Amino acid sequence: MLSLEEMSDRMEIQELVLRYTYALDSQDWDSWEACFAPDATIDYTETGAIAGSVKDVREYLEKTMTMFARYQHMVAGTVIDFEPDRQSARLRTMCHNPLVLPWGEGEHVFFCGIWYRDTVVRTESGWRFSSRYEELCYFYNVPELPA
């Protein structure tokens, strides 16, 4: 049986995963950044983006996400494995991500499936991502983009 502390930790970590997606999809960059520990690392290279510090990736996202008319990061099925000291945990979360690009006179919709592989740490402010890695599962209907 789970202890009250473990149930609380699991709920807080699930909330962190959701807050990340809501912040990203609403381009609330301060809330997005608050999901991470200050020294966190992020690696989105498998999906064609960059790897770097939270500040580097935030700057990149602020510029590149504006190319999309709409998008949504739908997450489900997070598995949480706590380290023995219960101060950190490893996560794996599935994400289905439809993206809409302005395209000529209309729009082009394509899909990306990813696995988020994360490490989270307990901080004074609650659980935060200390590393986030996007593992590509699939792309579907990706258009050929001009150079």
Can you characterise this structure?
There is one protein chain. This protein is an alpha+beta fold and 147 residues long. The protein contains 3 helices and 7 strands. It has helices at residues 4-25, 29-33, 54-64; strands at residues 36-43, 51-53, 70-71, 74-82, 88-103, 106-123, 126-140. It is elongated.
Helix content: 25-40%
User: What is the number of domains?
Assistant: 1
For the record, what CATH class applies? Alpha Beta
Number of strands: 7
Give the count of helical stretches. Answer: 3
Q: What is the terminal separation in angstroms? A: 55 Å
What kind of sheet is the major sheet? 7 strands, mixed
| Overall spatial form | elongated
- The value of Rg in angstroms is 16 Å
- Encode the helix/strand succession as letters: HHEEHEEEEE
Structural class: alpha+beta
CATH topology descriptor: Nuclear Transport Factor 2, Chain: A
Q: Give the name of the CATH architecture.
A: Roll
Strand content: over 45%
Task: Spell out the blueprint of helices and strands.
Blueprint: H1 4-25, H2 29-33, E1 36-43, E2 51-53, H3 54-64, E3 70-71, E4 74-82, E5 88-103, E6 106-123, E7 126-140
Parallel strand pairs: 1-7
Antiparallel strand pairs: 1-2, 3-5, 4-5, 5-6, 6-7
